[in-house]
Write a structure and sequence with these properties.
Blueprint: E1 14-15, H1 18-28, E2 35-39, H2 45-53, E3 56-61, H3 64-73, E4 79-83, E5 99-103, H4 109-118, E6 125-131, H5 132-138, H6 147-153, E7 156-164, E8 169-170, E9 177-184, H7 195-205, H8 213-221, H9 225-234, H10 248-259
Parallel strand pairs: 2-3, 2-5, 3-4, 5-6
Antiparallel strand pairs: 1-8, 6-9, 7-9
Helix pairs in contact: 7-8, 7-10, 8-9
């Protein structure tokens, strides 16, 4: 069976390195009862490993040719191949304790993380091979956080795994990749909050990372700098704080200060 050529438009880079594939599976801590969602299985190198370790593997592939070929490459009964856009896939079809294990296209990462994190049926664990820089951004501590790290760490504990050099892919991407492990929090970090309004505050705060938090909040929430400064004081943050310096708890305290007003209802 001939291998399909990678499509640049879909960000396809095949990984066939046995050690790297084994590292991905090891971080997922798979057992015979697991259902695994694989995204963009490609030629099925990772798929083959997953079907040996998990009870069921659901492989969602956007490329019609690859989706048709995968069942012929990986001939096992516990594999289901779905030809669909993962961003439109109904995650509620999966059992509530499913895991996601995948080598995902770089361009898809941010949107995919948002969809999976905010789903009504989120995975209990994700092990993703992503661009090294993105993996490290997701895992960033307070002091160097971003909208992405806050958005993911609100729902998951993030850990870094092995770095996978670009040369191990076909074709090699321009940058190295890294394994990213995300474990869902067993309980909500901040029970009872309005998630939509919480992230409206965070998004406003990160509207301009080069400016102080007060300036960003003022512009993002359409309030005066004096009002923004007052909220920052109520949250016990310094007036010259910058958004990347805040921890999740700091963002929560800022949200609590602002939610007492009707600003977020405007």
């Amino acid at each position: 069976m001939e291998n399909a050529l990678p499509k640049k438009s879909l960000g396809q880079h095949w990984l066939n390195d046995p050690a790297s594939l084994a590292s991905i599976c090891e971080m997922a801590d798979l057992n015979p009862k697991d259902t695994v969602l694989e995204i963009g299985p490609g030629h099925g190198s990772l798929t083959q490993n997953l079907t040996l370790l998990a009870n069921n593997v659901v492989a969602v592939e956007f490329d019609d040719h690859l989706a048709a070929q995968l069942p012929l490459r990986v001939r096992v009964e516990n594999l289901k191949v779905v030809h669909e856009d993962i961003l439109k896939y109904d995650l509620t079809k999966l059992p509530i304790d499913y895991k996601v294990v995948a080598n995902i296209p770089y361009y898809l990462t941010s949107n995919l993380l948002r969809v999976l994190c905010e789903s009504d049926n989120p995975p209990t664990l994700m092990v993703l091979l992503v661009q090294k820089e993105v993996a490290q951004r997701v895992c960033a501590p307070a002091g160097s956080m971003s909208m992405l790290s806050v958005s993911v760490q609100f729902y998951y504990t993030a850990e870094l795994g092995a770095i996978v050099p670009a040369k191990l892919f076909t074709p090699p991407p321009k940058v190295d990749s890294q394994i990213l492990k995300l474990t869902r929090h067993k309980a909500e970090l901040f029970p009872g909050i309005n998630t939509k309004n919480f992230f409206r505050v965070v998004k406003s705060g990160f509207a301009n990372r080069r400016k102080t938090l007060a300036n960003s909040l003022s512009a993002g929430l359409h309030i005066s700098k004096t009002e923004a400064a007052a909220f920052i004081g109520l949250a016990k943050l310094t007036i010259n704080a910058r958004p990347q310096e805040l921890s999740l708890t700091d963002w929560h305290n800022l949200y609590l200060a602002i939610i007492t007003t009707d600003i977020l209802q405007k």
